[in-house]
Specification:
Elements lengths: L4 E4 L3 E5 L9 H5 L19 H8 L7 E5 L3
Antiparallel strand pairs: 1-2, 2-3
The structure holds iron/sulfur cluster.
Length: 72
């Protein structure tokens, strides 16, 4: 089964599919505070605004990152 890892800042949830990730590093270049490949967890969504996160996820070239808004 495909591996799926979720990260949230309480408002938005980012879904990362490691098998699709091309490690192009676009996410790291756009939001270096949030995406820290050498750390675990490597995604720290609390360090950016929801808008910044959504804009970045849209630019992931492989489709490994997607997001969904959390229900209130
Ligand atoms: S931008 Fe997407 S494909 Fe590139 S390293 Fe980040 S998650 Fe992986």
């Amino acid at each position: 089964m495909e591996k799926v890892i979720e990260y949230t800042n309480g408002e938005v949830t980012v879904i990362w599919k490691p098998e699709m990730c091309q490690h192009a590093g676009v996410c790291v270049k756009m939001l270096p505070n949030v995406y820290r490949p050498k750390e675990r967890p490597w995604v720290r969504l609390e360090l950016a605004t929801t808008k910044e996160i959504i804009d970045q996820v849209a630019k992931c070239p492989s489709g490994a990152l997607t997001y969904k808004m959390n229900k209130k």
